[in-house]
Amino acid sequence: MLGIVVSLALALIVLGTVLFHFLSEWWWTPIASNWGYVDDTIIVTFWITGTVFVVAILFMAYCAWRYRYREGRRAEYEPENTKLEVWLTGLTTVGVAAMLAPGLFVWHQFVTVPEEATEIEVMAQQWQWSFRYPGDDGVLGTSDPRNINADNPFGLNPDDPNGLDDVLIESDDLHLPLDKPVKVLLRSIDVLHDFYVPQFRAKMDMVPGMITFFWLTPTRTETFDILCFELCGTGHYAMRGSVVVEEESAYQAWLQEQPTFADSLADADMGTGDESQQASSEGEADSPQNGVLR
Amino acid sequence: MTYFTPTSAEHVPPAEVADVELFHPKSWVTKYVFSQDAKVIAIQYSFTAIAIGLVALVLSWLMRLQLGFPDTFAFIDAESYYQFITMHGMIMVIYLLTALFLGGFGNYLIPLMVGARDMVFPYMNMLSYWVYLLAVLVLVASWFVPGGPTGAGWTLYPPQAILSGTPGSDGGIILMLLSLALFIIGFTMGGLNYVVTVLQGRTRGMTLMRLPLTVWGIFVATILALLAFPALFVGAVMMTFDKLLETSFFMPVIVEFGEQMAYDGGSPVLFQHLFWFFGHPEVYIVALPAFGIVSDLLSVHARRNIFGYRMMVWAIVIIGGLSFIVWAHHMYVSGMNPYFGFFFATTTLIIAVPTALKVYNWVLTLWRGNIHFRIPMLFAIAFIVTFVNGGITGLFLGNAVVDVPLSDTMFVVAHFHMVMGVAPILVIFGAIYHWYPLMTGRMLNQAMGQFHFWVTFIGAYAIFLPLHYLGFLGVPRRYYEMGETSFIPQSAQSLNAFVTVVALIVGFAQLVFIFNLLSSAFKGKQAEKNPWGATTLEWQTPEMPPGHGNWGAAQPVVYRWAYDYSVPGVEQDFVPQNVPPEQEPTAGGHEDRPDAAVQPAE
């Protein structure tokens, strides 16, 4: 009796799982980047593994019903069945290869950044985002967290001419041009963070002491949420931002209005006079100016 | 084929060493408190693990309450939420699962199943438990220091684990690291015992290839633990130095809330390598004993030999070996060199092959069996369902590029809960229902057992299946509250509320189980000897529960493998391992046995 109940329960679990899958409204967000291959790999994996799940559990349901205890019946004594085991090993290996091959192929694309990709930088700290664009020269200036002070929140190297025209965005608002490959350089100045936009399907941790990266090409104009995806302390859940993907012209127009590092250095000079560098390194003079400057 | 074929008495080698004199307790204290008897130590380990496990259960309720009904419970703020998830994870993985499988089942079953009188180092075995208890107490103490326990997540990633933006970054993290170090010291004492006992303490005739798979699983898991825990140990020591002495093993230049810190030159990713070099084998430290135990439950209650015994043994060994070269699949998006992804994705997916073979062999053990659906068997079947479900989602996360969108989402939470939370815990339940009569001489209450099984199995599946789908959607893990987003529909919140309600129900079903455990010890039906008709040695002791020294006057001699169920030509449907072929209750010689033609190859 219980054998039949178990058999039915197993069948119902399979049925319920399959129904849940097809009726569930919780599924991927519509993709907004070039990483459609990632979705495809998931689909391949999903169907292969889903089939294995359904077959394995239904077979078990069959066994539970067919081989439930009966008085007088005897189980079969069969220590090994080499032929069956070899077949199953072979089939499993084929299935695994069918998932691994596309996976490695797409991973190769993921780690190979196209030459024409524009570099931008995302900087994270507890619990906010800021962004940097390379400016007119197309090159991001070097940075070092030791340089960070109130006048230089990005820690850019003031002696590096490449950094002077860098565009600095000290808000949680990132803009990206449509259909242009972007190499996103990631930097953190305190703890681990992770830059993720679910519609982009690509993420990477941000590690203090390192510059990490990933690349993508945005393919839809829309405003998306940026979420921190690596536990970074009490405020982790509230570390949000947004990214606006827009046409090249709108993007350029927006970019032109943003301050450069040179602008902010000039502002800082006006605020604190010639001694700005010294004052801020002493660490006490900058608090009153801080309020004025921001 | 010598493992299958029974050896006649003259083929059993003589004992190499004389019987070892045991420590004989003289007082109540040395018998039940500072006991050197592995069976008592096993029960001490189990009680402690289950007690601290109940704390983890309550923590899971609290976090589920917050996720299901945000803004409802004023006492759950972000800091305490992160403390709940951290302590829940750490307790479940280390202090409950590892301790219960190895310290609990390992201690009870290894000596009995290999035919030994006790562990080979009983005094060290006793110390192992007391150091473990100390580790648990230190862990609990972190609730009572200023700032409370650490809220760094069970992975304890630096720099945040020791910086002020994380709850418990003063006393909490120090006590956590100290507790882990103590746990590892205690485990090492016990672990060396388990390994040496399996290698050196087996009785006459018990070859390695005749060991029950339970012993194989615990044995290989212990070797993994002895090799993997040191990585966590050094990681814990280095992080303690970073915190207390301002060394910079894991700490680069850091600007914390505008202040430059004194650290320079360390690498946070280094910690992750150390952590996962421990952490991935840890998955198998929990899984391999479960694999072994479930194999024996299936075989006993289906009255059929485990299918493909040798392959099952080699699969355990191969999985154990491979588990040391897959660790960085937890780190595809950690910022390590991305080319590592090719290697680790490949090794990770390869490990799926021996794992899948184990699943096939479990199912094929049911096939053509004569299945008794007793409660241990129900849990074993439930294990297969949840393990297959959790295993296949591992193929998503192990494949580097698929991991990129799914990492750190609820998909990961669902995956590892299904595969190393629910599945091994179902085995633990099955094992307790199976061996409780041996340990206490009484049966657990059947009605409560049925209730416990169905609520736990169906409930746990209903909790974790939907979470995968929230993960696909992009709902992150470790979020105190989701707040406003543009991509998460309102219905996701209803789903979370549903999951919380189910989690509360499943949690309460565990209290029924605990009640059953306690009340049946006194009021349960008296168990008959070897109630399931098992072949393995632990059921063949002269007394039940087994007495001091296990075997009375003489240790058993083993003549056959552990899976002689429904042997053709033998009237009884099982032949215990210590029955010589001359004494088989045959119905007419061995001529029709499938292995009768094969001569022993020794």
Question: Could you explain how this protein is built, in words?
Answer:
The complex is a heterodimer of chains A (294) and B (602). Chain A is an alpha+beta fold. Chain A is built from eight helices and ten strands. Chain A has a five-stranded mixed beta sheet with strand order 3-2-1-5-8, with no helix packed on it. Chain A has a five-stranded mixed beta sheet with strand order 4-10-9-6-7, covered by helices on one side. In chain A, a hairpin with a 6-residue loop joins strand 6 and strand 7. In chain A, helix 1 runs antiparallel to helix 2, helix 2 runs antiparallel to helix 3 and helix 6 packs across helix 8. The longest helix of chain A has 31 residues. Chain A is elongated, with a radius of gyration of 28 Å. The relative contact order of chain A is 0.13. Chain B is 59% helix and 1% strand. Chain B has a two-stranded antiparallel ribbon with strand order 1-2. The C terminus of chain B is likely disordered. Chains A and B meet through helix 1, helix 2, helix 3, strand 7 and strand 9 of A and helix 3, strand 1, helix 7, helix 8 and helix 9 of B.
